[in-house]
Amino acid sequence: MSSADKKVAVVSGGAGGIGAAVVSRLAQADFIPIILDKDEAAGREVLAELGRQEGRGLCIALDATKKSDVQRAFDRVLADYRRVDVLVNLAGGALYAKLIQDFALREWREIIDVNLKSTFLCCQAVFPIMKAQRRGAIINTASNYAVTGSASRTAYSAAKAGIIAFTKSLAAELAPYGVRANVIAPGRTATPRVMGNYDAAGWAAASSQIPMGRTAEPAEIAEGVAFLAGDESLYMTGQTLHVNGGMVMP
């Protein structure tokens, strides 16, 4: 199969953590991976580790909360590859852990923007591409907190719950065109950023709270994304796939 015939997967926030694992897994499934991330150097390292050659992968630096950046990125992808088969929105983060009385409005907006607004902007940019193709899969990212909430995580919980509701509505809009939209909701995952919040004892204690007795590896979350991106889930849309070791059972 030539590069022109290969499917293209765009991954926002693909330069590290779960995102890097998703890029690797989709590359294994023979997608051409396109990383959208503010850290272009890290994104290039991810592609280099996969042995991506020119034309077989791309990293585009952007601020995913800025419409002009996002539109420019998708214009570039369409110009270079003429298609987008899969969009995975992983850009986001909790950023702050504060009681609501201590939140500055700027901080609240920052969390909503980096999680919910970035998801909206990327979906808005890819919508006409996939609509014209009459095929495609969008995978947005939520969290356990979208279901349970969490003290000191009000903005993050609201943003992730909003992503689930947004994706259900998006799925209804896209279904007539053969395009699917689903959500992956990871539980606690062993990424450097998450593990950096714990000492060894704290990490062991947190892991023991999970029914399966351990945290997820990024590659395990990536397997869920690959399922939602692939033909095995062709009749699934508007759904949330929880990958959390039984920590939350909605």
List keywords for this structure.
globular, Rossmann fold, alpha/beta, 250 residues, 46% helix, seven-stranded parallel beta sheet
Please give the largest β-sheet.
Answer: 7 strands, parallel
Structural class: alpha/beta
Silhouette: globular
Order of helices and strands: EHEHEHEHEHHEHHHE
Count of structural domains: 1
Q: Which percent bin holds the helix content?
A: 40-55%
Poorly predicted regions = none
Radius of gyration: 17 Å
Looking at the structure, the CATH topology is: Rossmann fold
Q: Could you give the order of strands across the largest sheet? A: 3-2-1-4-5-6-7
Strand content: 5-15%
Number of helices: 9
How would you name the CATH homologous superfamily? Answer: NAD(P)-binding Rossmann-like Domain
User: Mean pLDDT across all residues, rounded?
Assistant: 94
| Gap between N and C termini | 42 Å
Count all strands and give the number.
7
Please tell me the CATH architecture by its name. 3-Layer(aba) Sandwich
CATH class: Alpha Beta
Descriptive account of the structure:
With 250 residues, the protein is of the alpha/beta class. It has helices spanning 17-28, 40-49, 67-81, 105-133, 145-148, 154-174, 192-195, 200-208, 218-229; strands at residues 8-12, 32-37, 58-61, 86-89, 136-141, 179-186, 240-243. β4 (86-89), α4 (105-133) and β5 form a beta-alpha-beta unit. α1 (17-28) packs across α9 (218-229), α3 runs parallel beside α4 (105-133) and α4 packs parallel to α6 (154-174). It is globular, with a radius of gyration of 17 Å.
